[in-house]
Amino acid sequence: MHTMRRGTNAGGMRRYNERLILSAVRRMNGASKAELARMTALSPQAVVRIVDELDEEGLLYQAGRRTGGMGQPATIYRINGKRGYTVGVEVGRGDTTIVLLDFDGERKAISRHAGSFPSIETVLGHVSTFIDEHLATTDLLISEGFMGIGIAMPWFLGEWRDELGISVDQADEWRRADVADRLQAGLSWPIFFENDGNAAALAQLLCGAGVDLQDFLAINIGTFIGGGIVLGGRVHQGRHGNAGALASMPVCAAGQSDYLIHHASLYALDQNIVAEERAAWTQRCVDALAFAVTSANSLLDLEAVIIDGALVPEGLNMIADGLRSHFSTNAPPDFFTPEIRTGQLGKVAAAVGAGLLPLHASFTPDLASLFKKE
Length: 374
Fold this sequence. Notes:
Blueprint: H1 14-28, H2 33-40, H3 44-57, E1 60-66, E2 74-79, E3 85-91, E4 95-102, E5 107-114, H4 120-134, E6 146-153, H5 161-164, H6 168-173, H7 179-185, E7 191-195, H8 196-207, E8 216-221, E9 225-231, E10 234-236, E11 250-253, E12 256-259, H9 275-300, E13 304-309, H10 313-330, E14 339-342, H11 349-363, H12 367-370
Parallel strand pairs: 3-6, 6-7, 8-13, 13-14
Antiparallel strand pairs: 1-2, 3-4, 4-5, 8-9, 9-10, 11-12
Helix pairs in contact: 1-3, 2-3, 8-11, 9-10
């Protein structure tokens, strides 16, 4: 397992180092001061000072002691979930998912609205109702305890009209340049926007199957196939925030060039089909994903690929097993096969990632620009 990259003891970097400690504690799901010093490469004295200050501020708390080895038992520190709350929203092509997260990223409430292609008005209505139900009776909305709302959605929500069966007017509403402004105008709190694939990758990085990884491809199987890329412990967004957009990735199927969206998306899977037809869809999905994973890994040399999404766990495991079987016999000779993992976040991966956006913006270091390589 790769370790996190190094922090810095330079003057003027206190805020950064605090974020680094919080990020490490969150990804390690609790750690001692000695473990944090090893993980971040900060000096033991700096870690002691920072952890004590975060403890006093209520951002960390002492969760118990760990025995073993030589010396005194080590005090374990964890994130104080009661320190703050966020709401995460995934605007999907067939549903809207909303989650309430605490400061530790734990899900406190979930609401899903499945049905027709969404409008901006319906999304705002669902979010307002959710906040009224779960937060209106508290003082959080008028205090620093509520950190904001994250919204995750495909940048091209209204595209692929034929596959979605939507009208020109429905598609055009999400193509307008003022979509973010209209969503912000309908809500009274800070809003953070992200591509749904990047949000799902962030969720895997901070509280999912990628917490121990630095470089991976997160594949999210939903109405359309989507994805996100993590490099160096940070979500790699690309120039337009659209890196890892797997739907339009070229694949070769039945000897012809096509796009991954047509072979690994749930819109093409009839939920009422018999087992044999489902198995045939799964095999087509595996074949197309194997092509896409080979291409991505040849460019990026990844540690792992994480498969998650709206399929039941059995379906995800079948796809993961199919990819492992493929690469065990069909990997190119100059190819380092990445580990194939299945995620546990399921349908709420992108919504959880959206909820993490306010936390990530305020309490996560800029890993790409500030971490020192070992």
